[in-house]
Amino acid sequence: MLKRTHYTDEVETTEAGTVVLSGWVHDIKDLARTRFIWLRDRQGIAQVTIVKSTATPEILESSQQLGREDVISVEGTPVTERIAKVGGEITPTKIELIVRAQSVTPLDVSGKIESNLDARLDWRVIDLRRRENLAIFQIQSKLVEGMVEYLSGKGYLQVFTPCLLGGTSEGGAEVFKVDYFGREAFLRQDPQLHRQLCIAAGFDRIYDLGPNWRAEASHTPRHLCEHRGMAVEFGFMNDETDMMRVEEELIVAAMRKVRDECSHELEILQVNPEIPSAPFPEMRFPEIYRILEEHGKKLPYGSDIDKEGETLLCEHVREKYKTDAFFINRFPFAVKPFYVMRVDDEPQWARSVDFVYKDLEQSSGGQREHRYEKIMDQLKEKGMKPETMEWFTEPFKFGVPPHGGFCLGIERFTMSFLGKENIRETTIFPRTPERLLP
Ligand code: ATP
Ligand code: MG
After folding, report:
1. Fewer C-beta within 10 Å: the chain N or C terminus?
2. Coil, helix or strand at residue 225
3. How far is residue 314 CA from its own chain's centroid?
4. Would the pTM of this model clear 0.85, i.e. be above it?
5. Which residues are 20's β-sheet partners?
6. Residues near ligand 1 (Cβ within 6 A)
C-alpha cells in the first residue's frame, strides 16, 4: 500500500472512500469493546477506531502489538458519524507497523510532563514532536514564505552571498575565525557588504536569506551564536524613509500570511498576534534624548540607546501611538559602522534605522553611503585601514546609485511574534556558547 494518501487534517473533509495515513502512535487506549489508536503526523492527530466485535483477526492482532511512538501506516475508511472529538477518525482495514520505537521516550511527547529547556534541547528531536513546538516552526516557515512572496512580487532577486569572508565588515571580537587553507577567514555577521556590492553590480533589488554568526559569549534569551537573517537591499532610494516603507510592508505581509494560513497553529499556541498597521511610527535621534529625559532617563547626548532606554521608549510609543511596532532613525554616527550614510548637514546623525517590535530590536538597516570619497573619509574616521577594504570600496568609483536595506532576524522575529520568552524556543537546533549539539 502507498505510505500516505492523506494527512490527518484532511480526513474530515475528504471524499475518498479509502485513505492511508502514516505517522507515529501518539497514544493508545484499550477498552473492553473498543481499541483506540491515535495516529500523529505533521498536521495533527487522527483517531483509528477498532470495534472488537466487528474487526478482522488481522486488525485485532496488528493493533494489539503497537506502542507509543511506533511508526505506522493505517489504511482505512473515514468515519462520517464520528465519535472522535477532535480531528478525523477512520476505521482501519490494514495496519502496518513500519518501525518499532523504544517503549520509554526521554521526553513526554504529549507534553503532559514538562521538562526544562536544557533537557528539551538535549532531546530536541523528541521535543519537536510535541504539537506546539512543531507549530512554532510551521508559523516560522509561513512568516518567511510571506516575506519571500512579498519580495518576489516586488521584483526582488534572491541572491546567495558568501558566508566565508576574507575581512570583517564591522571589525571587532564578535566574529568566528576559521582556518582557510592556512589563512585566516571569518564567518559573516551579516551579508551587509556583499549585498551592497550586488547593488553596485546593478541587481537593483535583492534579498539574501541566510545564516549569520556571532562569537559573543552572551547568555541572553534573545541572542544566538548562529541566526538567520532576511537581508534586503535595494537601489535608487530617495532616502532612508523608503527603506522603512519596504520593511513595514514586508512585516505586515508576513504576519498576514500567518493569520490567513496558520489559524490552527496559532490556536494550538494560544496566541493571536495583532498585526500592526503601516506606516509604523518613527522615533528619531536626537529627539529621543528629550523623550527619555521626560521619562526620567538621562542619556548622554550623542550616545547609543541602552536596554533601559529602549524599554522606556517602547512604553512611550505604546502610550502615544498604541502600537508595539516602530522605527528608530538617525542613530549617532559614532555608534554605527563606516558604511552608513550620514545626514549631510548634520553629520553627527546617521540614516540608520532599527525596527523595534514587542520591546526588542528586530532589524538594523538604513541608507548606505554610496559616494566614494565619503566612504573613504568614513573608513578613516572609524580608524580602519582603507587598503584592507579595497575589495569593497573600489567598485564605488564606477557609479553606484543611492541604496539601502535592512537585516531582520528570523528567530528573534518569530520569538516576538509568538510572545515566546526565549529565542531558543524558536530555533530548531540552537547554537549558544555552551551548545553545539545536536
Ligand atoms: P542586538 O543589539 O540585539 O545584539 P545587533 O544590533 O548586534 O543586535 P544587527 O547586526 O543589527 O544586530 O543584526 C540585525 C538583526 O539580526 C538584529 O536586529 C536581530 O534581529 C538579529 N540578530 C543579531 N544578532 C543576533 C543574535 N546574536 N542572535 C539572534 N538574532 C540576532
Ligand atoms: Mg542592530
Report:
1. C
2. coil
3. 22
4. yes
5. 75
6. 190, 214, 223-224, 227, 229, 361-364, 407, 409, 411-412, 423
